[in-house]
C-alpha cells in the first residue's frame, strides 16, 4: 500500500474514460478504495486523502461545512457599497 498506488490509479483514469467517470462520481474514500481494489491498486484511506490534498482533489459528495453554509445562506462575506461597482455590474464591466 502506498501513495504511489493512488497516483497510478489516477494516471490509469486519465486514459480510461469509464474509470475516470467512476472516480469523478465517487461519494467518498470507501468508494475510491473499492474502485482501486477492483483494479489491483492497494492503498489506505490515509494515503488516498494525502494524495488528494496534494493534488487538490475532492469527492463528489463533499459538502459545505456549517460555517460555509451559513455564509452562503446568511449573506456573510465582503460587502460592496460602492455605487460605481453596482453600475459596472449592471453594464457588464469588471472593476
TrEMBL record:
**Polar residues composition-biased segments:** 80-95
Where are the stretches annotated Disordered?
Answer: 72-95
Report the residue ranges that make up the Nif11 domain in this protein: 1-48
Q: Which domain of life is it from?
A: Bacteria
Protein's recorded name: Nif11 domain-containing protein
Stored InterPro entries: CHP03798_Ocin (IPR022516), Nif11 (IPR012903)
